[in-house]
Specification:
Length: 271
């Protein structure tokens, strides 16, 4: 790891974690430590990503490890470790097993990186954020869940497809919890500044809202042996970028450890 470069640790080298590492180094957000309990998995993926550097022109350093010592003094720690959903499972079905995994990860991370910001990706997300906050002893603004950006991205995707416009012209906001408790805001979702309530009938908006709420389950049902990872990883890296580069961006608020929400434009939450 090079002095002066942000240090990002990703715990869990599965599909989500490896994709987070890939997107982070491609954006040169910092050096990355990839941690996983499976022997050889994080080392192999880190080496593979490092060898893509000359092609994609990034110099970020990558280290794979089965322990946590390499993660010491991390600036940001992304926790993706845990069981993935299978068809028919809700996020809450994962609660007890993933609580055990995440609790252990947090203890290991906090012992080595007392000033880090924790980003939780593991499901059920809202519960894992609460657990990580209590177990870490960190201030609420340093324990944050990734959800608002992902859910909003799904809503934006469905709006763009419905209206046959570019996703770049679509702004959408989905707040609150990750799952049935999410709050989709059609009135504040626009295409080139025009609210979608002026562009679509209410029944079509309701269908898009429902599809957004069921977005993760739809992908789980299609994959059958895994869950979504490209979009969750991209959403996580958008948060990492906002933090590591202190960009004052306004983004959909994710779940926080206090049950309230914060935005990525809030500098107090990310310093």
């Amino acid at each position: 790891m090079l002095a002066g470069r942000p240090k990002i640790t990703v715990v869990g080298a599965g599909n989500v974690g490896a994709s987070v590492a890939q997107y982070a180094v491609e954006k040169e957000l910092g050096d990355v430590v990839l941690v996983d309990v499976i022997e050889g998995l994080p080392q192999g993926k880190a080496l593979d990503l490092a060898q893509a550097g000359p092609v994609h022109r990034y110099d970020a350093r990558l280290i794979g490890s089965n322990g946590y010592d390499e993660s010491a003094n991390s600036d940001i720690v992304v926790i993706t470790a845990g069981m993935a959903r299978k068809p028919g499972m809700t996020r809450d079905d994962l609660l007890f097993k993933n609580a055990e995994i995440v609790g252990g990860v947090v203890e290991q991370v906090v012992a080595r990186s007392k000033n880090a910001i924790l980003i939780l990706v593991t499901n059920p997300l809202d519960a894992m954020v609460q657990l990580a906050w209590r177990r870490s002893g960190f201030p609420p603004g340093r324990v944050i869940g990734m959800a608002g950006i992902l859910d909003s991205a799904r809503f934006r995707t469905f709006i763009a497809h419905e209206l046959e416009v570019s996703v770049e012209n679509v702004t959408a906001f989905v707040l609150g919890g990750h799952g049935d408790t999410m709050v989709v805001l059609p009135r504040y979702s626009t295409v080139a500044g025009v609210p979608i309530t002026d562009l679509l009938p209410s029944d079509r908006i309701d269908a898009l809202v429902k599809r957004t709420r069921d977005g993760g389950a739809e992908i789980v049902g299609l994959l059958k042996s895994g869950s979504a990872y490209y979009a969750p990883a991209a959403s996580t890296v958008e948060m990492v970028e906002a933090m590591s580069r202190t960009r004052r961006r306004s983004c959909p608020a994710p779940p926080t450890s206090t049950g309230s929400t914060v935005s990525e434009g809030s500098t107090s939450a990310f310093r």
